[in-house]
From TrEMBL:
Lineage: Bacteria, Bacillati, Bacillota, Bacilli, Bacillales
Protein's UniProt name: YlxR family protein
UniProt domain YlxR: residue ranges: 9-82
Pfam families per UniProt: YlxR
InterPro entries: YlxR, YlxR-like_sf, YlxR_dom
Domain of life assignment: Bacteria
Length: 102
């Protein structure tokens, strides 16, 4: 059976290339909302972060999310994303482990 090609994406903070399923997508929707997209299917401009809180903090410090999304991300949105990121991290890691088992 032919191997499927695994799409790679780059973490905007640490610049490391990883399989798309191992990264968390941050999306700027057409309504100018910035939020976490675990499904990877919401419409809008996306940026990828690896599942580490350190990478999220680095992206906030360097404003790499702003550049990747081509939109100014307000401090309130970073705070909301930080809360969401921490709550989503466990869920993301469990999904990642289950996909590795297959």
């Amino acid at each position: 059976m032919k191997q499927r090609k695994v799409p790679l994406r780059k973490c905007v903070a640490c610049q490391e290339m990883m399989p798309k399923k191992e990264l968390i997508r941050i999306v700027k929707t057409p309504e100018d909302e910035v939020l976490i997209d675990l499904t990877g299917k919401k419409s809008g401009r996306g940026a990828y972060l690896c599942g580490k809180v350190s990478c999220f903090k680095l992206a906030q410090k360097n404003k790499s999310l702003d550049r990747a999304l081509k939109h100014h991300v307000k401090p309130e949105i970073y705070e909301q994303l930080a809360e969401d990121f921490i709550s989503v991290e466990d869920e993301f890691l469990s999904v990642k482990e289950s996909s590795n088992d297959e």
